[in-house]
Design brief:
The protein is mostly helical. The protein has a domain at 27-72. 74% of the residues lie in helices and 0% in strands. The chain has helices spanning 8-43, 47-53, 60-69. Helix 1 (8-43) runs antiparallel to helix 3. The longest helix has 36 residues, at 8-43. It is rod-shaped, with a radius of gyration of 23 Å.
Length: 72
């Protein structure tokens, strides 16, 4: 009786899993950069500028998170 085991399938998926891992890290880093940049820019606005736009300082985190989610 002969048995055959194909190990190439698992070996070939390993590099793609590693690449996907590093792609996910790079995406999170880009999203974090966009979040910080948006948050910092909003912090530089004056109260009058914010009132003109109909925003408050309480909206900064939400708006920064939304900007970061748009990054791909």
């Amino acid at each position: 009786m002969t048995y055959f085991t194909d190990t190439n399938a698992t070996a070939s998926t390993q590099p793609s899993r590693i690449a996907a891992f590093f792609d996910a890290i790079a995406l999170k880093m880009r999203q974090r950069k966009a979040y910080r940049q948006t948050y910092n820019e909003l912090c530089t606005m004056t109260a009058r500028d914010l009132a003109d736009l109909g925003m408050s300082r309480a909206d900064f985190r939400r708006m920064s998170t939304e900007a970061a989610e748009l990054v791909r």
